[in-house]
Amino acid sequence: MGKRTIILAAVCVALMFAAGPIYAATAVDDVIKMENKAYKEHEKGIVTFSHKKHNEEYKVGCGECHHDDKGKPLNDLKMGDDVKNCIECHKTPGKMPGSVKKDLKANKASKKEIKAKELEYHAEALHENCISCHKDYNKKNKTKAAPQACTKCHPKKKK
Ligand code: HEC
Ligand code: HEC
Ligand code: HEC
Ligand code: HEC
User: Fold this and answer.
1) Which residues are noted in the entry as heme c 4-binding (predicted)?
2) Where are the domains of the chain?
């Protein structure tokens, strides 16, 4: 091993450290198993979400799904940006229990207030995002290609 190899190795290591803070990117798989770690247990089968395909083949822009802390669409998002997971803001795992809705109604909460409360629940936010687009798309294109039914997204759970 020559002196040059050692210098080269040292340069490589230095570069790796230098690159660290620049790449504060959030990694994302092309296909995501939607099994959020915030859940103790998933009641339903795990949804397979084709993240890359949605963007590239179905031509869905980042801002259709990702937004900032005010709910404003992040239309200029790029791969390599720092991206927050939905659960960081839609914090409570699962759907909103019926009892919560009943209490809100008993306290004369407005539709808007109920909706805002609902969005605190992760599964409600996800369903609203995924299913509302699928519904519109199917209706507009007279197709069933975008899944709307529970079992089309959540496969039957293996016992
Ligand atoms: C159809 C909806 C949709 C579109 C379009 C979309 N994303 Fe996502 N993306 C998601 C969802 C949902 C998650 C969270 C997945 C999870 O819970 O693991 C996610 C996760 C990510 C993550 C990982 C963050 C994390 O939680 O670890 C990155 C990075 C990302 N997206 C970037 C992008 C970029 C850049 C674009 C546009 C080029 C884009 N996404 C388009 C829905 C979408
Ligand atoms: C940084 C915090 C934050 C993150 C991360 C986040 N949201 Fe939101 N989300 C919000 C806020 C704030 C609103 C607006 C609530 C309102 O208008 O009352 C919102 C609204 C929504 C709505 C309702 C939109 C409407 O038009 O009614 C849906 C659906 C939603 N988010 C889904 C998601 C999904 C899916 C993800 C992950 C891909 C995500 N959110 C990530 C903060 C966030
Ligand atoms: C803004 C529109 C939009 C949003 C948001 C969206 N989708 Fe889709 N999705 C589509 C379209 C369009 C298709 C494909 C229709 C076709 O095949 O022609 C599709 C197809 C699918 C399919 C079947 C084909 C495949 O690629 O696996 C699954 C599963 C799916 N979506 C899951 C999701 C999930 C989960 C979310 C939420 C995290 C989501 N989608 C959000 C538009 C959307
Ligand atoms: C377009 C796809 C899609 C459809 C259709 C759909 N879901 Fe979901 N659902 C999701 C995604 C994505 C999550 C988030 C899971 C995660 O990230 O961990 C979720 C989460 C859930 C959760 C919380 C997680 C768990 O397993 O306990 C429940 C419960 C649930 N869905 C029930 C339903 C029911 C009931 C229906 C039919 C009325 C339905 N879903 C339809 C995509 C879908």
Assistant:
1) 133
2) 25-153
Using one digit for the tens of pLDDT, what is the confidence trace for 129-153?
999 999 999 999 999 999 999 999 9
CATH architecture of the domain 25-153 equals Alpha-Beta Complex (3.90)
Ligand 1 centre distance from Cα of residue 17 (Å): 27
Which residue of 23, 26, 28, 90 sits with most ligand 1 atoms within 8 Å of its CB, as the best mutation to test the pocket? 28
Residue nearest to atom 19 of ligand 2 (CA): 71
* pLDDT attached to residue 20: 45
pLDDT at 14: 54
C-alpha span between 83 and 75 (Å, rounded): 13
In the chain, what is the straight-line distance between the N-terminal and C-terminal CA atoms, in Å? Answer: 58
Mean pLDDT by 10 residues, the chain (159 residues): 60 51 74 97 97 97 97 95 96 97 96 97 98 98 97 89
How far, in Å, is the centroid of ligand 1 from the Cα of 51? 6
Q: Which residues lie closer than 8 Å to 29 by C-beta, 6 or more apart?
A: 51
**Exposure b/e, 44-75, CB count within 10 A at least 16 = b:** eeebebeeeebbeeeeeebebbbbeeeeeebe
